Amino acid sequence: MSTNNHPRMQLNNILQTYGHRPEWHVHISGSQHNPVWHATVYIRGVQSGVVQGPNRGAAMDRAAHEALRSFR
């Protein structure tokens, strides 16, 4: 299984190399029938990815992907 398809795992692996962990802030808005998940990831206290998605996992994956782009 490739970590390229799992941005949260890839982000965790990179940060562990430096002895750091991501900090996640996740919340939901919208109606019960049409929820919107908001995910923000912080790296060493710096906001690195802010996104929304149709479910918690998708929002977190998108935020991790955005944070990974800052490493490239």
From TrEMBL:
Hydrolase in keyword set: no
Keywords, alphabetical: RNA-binding
Stored PROSITE patterns: DS_RBD
GO function terms (MF aspect): RNA binding
Ranges of residues in domain DRBM: 6-72
Segments forming a coiled coil: none
This protein's name: DRBM domain-containing protein
Lineage of the organism: Eukaryota, Fungi, Dikarya, Basidiomycota, Agaricomycotina
